[in-house]
Amino acid sequence: MAVPTVKLSSGYEMPLVGFGLWKVKNDTCADQIYNAIKAGYRCFDGACDYGNEVEAGQGVARAIKDGLVKREELFIVSKLWNSFHEGDKVEPICRKQLADWGVDYFDLYIVHFPVALKYVDPSVRYPPGWTSADDKIELANAPIHETWAAMESLVDKKLARSIGVSNFSSQLLMDLLRYARVRPATLQIEHHPYLTQTRLVEYAQKQGIAVTAYSSFGPLSFLELELKHARDTPPLFEHPVIKGLAEKYSRTPAQVLLRWATQRNIAVIPKSNDPTRLAQNLQVTDFDLEKSELEAISALDKGLRFNDPVAYGMDIPIF
């Protein structure tokens, strides 16, 4: 089954369902990519910070070599980490990430967080994480307009077909759109029924910016990080509203959650190492929830954010 796509402002088409590489282990990453391609996935969402881009590229290369897919049939996403926001650091790190993936261009390259950290040379530590070479959280002085101008040059040089942002607020988008020569094609945000971010989603979509949801299953994505409020939050898979709809449509709770997003034209990037769930997560555009059911899921909103630097003890209150 072909996966529906969303048309980006750059003119390219992005699959509405992709495979997210956050927390995919290095020793299984290549196989997971390969198996996901076999299952029908064409969009892969990676990042410098995930530390598995070399292995992801190995999985892609094997799939191409075996004739499963052509490079132009894939939509490969990566992200600019916080330590490389200064204008002269953007292109070099993008080229390193391309080399790690073993590709000539990214279909989409995203500013990971709206915060600039002190530069850490990749030869010193890679990926650098949130701290400087002195193991401290140190901010850099690069404003977003400096970073964005360098991102635009990646498009000019055909290193990235589309560029976007992640974890930006409406206010930051408003500011960015005032001066952007190349408009952001996508906004990637934490988005699940406990954190609907309705105004942000509506604003982005009105501006022609496609929205991608990460952590579509809410607290489940954060249990292994030992985040207390994730452990204390009722799992979405077990919520009566979600379970009831799963039973009604003979679907899994995961499929219901993913359909809630995709039916509202929000792209999703779930992952799984289980072949059955891998296939199920891709089959979330062949049924429709009723309007009242979409609203019932949205009504579960608690404004509950899990991916927040402050929750991990960092004094970076960006949300």
From TrEMBL:
Record-annotated site: Lowers pKa of active site Tyr: K79
One Pfam family per UniProt: Aldo_ket_red
Boundaries of every NADP-dependent oxidoreductase domain copy: 18-301
Documented EC number(s): 1.1.1.307
InterPro entries, alphabetized: AKR, AKR2D, Aldo/ket_reductase_CS, NAD(P)_OxRdtase_dom_sf, NADP_OxRdtase_dom
Residues annotated as catalytic: Y50 (proton donor)
Reactions that this protein is recorded to catalyse: xylitol + NADP(+) = D-xylose + NADPH + H(+); xylitol + NAD(+) = D-xylose + NADH + H(+)
Protein's name according to its UniProt entry: D-xylose reductase [NAD(P)H]
